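Review form for a predicted model. The reviewer records the input and the model, then writes brief findings.
Reviewer: anonymous (R2)
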Amino acid sequence: MSGSKPRLVVGIVVDQLRTDYVEQLRNLFGEKGFNTFMRDGQYMRDVDFGSAGLDVASGTAEVLTGSWPAYTGVPGAMVYDSETSMMRPVLAAPSATGSYSNNSFSPEGLRLSTIADEMAIASDGKAQIYSVAADPQQAVILAGHAANGAVWVNNTSGLWATGSYYGALPSVAQKANVRGALTHRVDTMQWRPLAATTRYIQAGTGRAPQFSYKFARNDRDLYRKAVLTPGGNAAVTDMAVDLIGMLSPDASRPGMVNIGYTVAPYRFANGDAEAETTDAYLRLDAQIGRIIDAVDRYCGRENAVIWITSTGYYEAAATEDKKYRLPGGEFSARRAKSLLNSYLTARHGSADYVAAIRNGNIYLDNKAIEARNLSPEAVADEARQFVARMSGVERTFTRAEILSATNPTTLALNRSYDPKTGADILIQLAPGWSMADDESAISTHNKPMRQMPVMTPAFILAPAVKAQTVSTPVDATAIAPTVAGILRIRSPNGARTRPLSF
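Model under review:
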């Protein structure tokens, strides 16, 4: 590259990528893939996101904007809609239309600029910017506001889709919908452990892993299940390679393709999904190798920047068998709402004080509270103290407590809390307890709470970046400014941290 700006940038965000898995499996990875980054790039072993309650949407937004979820407009994949008393996708665009999609998403709710936006601005709109991910909201965040296109999987048809915000579906995606999208091959897909996975698991447990997944056409969750497997990652790679291949980037018209993958524990597995997760890492390594090959083929690695990061959190898949008699239980949102309403009615008179309890968050009806000439803050504090005495509750936090953040726990919550959509009270369950969202029309039962802080990695591969391993913690909000610095463009407009120096 000899001092010139990169012609191609490839950003990869892997949901729930963990450092320990990458390091433990390194000897089983191929020469390309993760080993290329660990050998030739900047390998940051411990990236600290500093935020509580992350998911694929909020973690991706933190990386791409360089700011915390409280400011990005994406505090989580789902937010509470007070008008409908329902949870809705944070980036849903009901008034927009989709291409090959029965619903649409747009970045209009994303309040900050991203790396992709700053690249578009720096090139005077000439940059060719695309994203691809199975998850629509992740694809939108990866694309940002100024991209040429964002591509995701329609989870009811298996076709590649986009939203009207980005215009027509890219031509390579339209062609794939005719011949190569998931819908054409999902019923021939089968996920079984690789030989290397079998050897690795058997060496540690003495038992060969036993799993096999097929995807039947009559399963209403067919594509939701399929995209969370290595087959879903492979489909994303197919599209990413096609997008890279159509760019022909040069100095005046640089290219960017941002990609979303997953190695999250397979939520449809029986048991702890340890074998499935191991297998997913080994197969993801091969997909990253394919991306490197595509960069070499279409642009040359000497003209490119490739970076990888995690979404900064981990959700264990396992539900402990009752035979082990570990403490725990299920917290019923419906029962909690009834008890809390009865308590507040006894204190202040009859009213529906609690609007809803969703995903461990309590939303009070502040209009009803104010109509009785009561202070919403005082009622919230009363409610918090009452709920804190319920079985399974470890801690409760009010909006005021979170916004005034006085300790590390509330600071992490503060960084994740959006005052515009946030709850009045947050419930933190004790380990072993699960939340039953049975208060809403569609009842869901979550996995038991397990506090699992894990190390998450990041990698940057670029001619201007020397190869080294960094073991000291790195702030996740520094990733976007650092990539921007390598590209010689501005940091995103809400970035919280200076670029790292290499």
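Findings: The chain has a mean pLDDT of 93.
Further findings: The longest helix spans residues 274-298.
Recommendation: see findings above.
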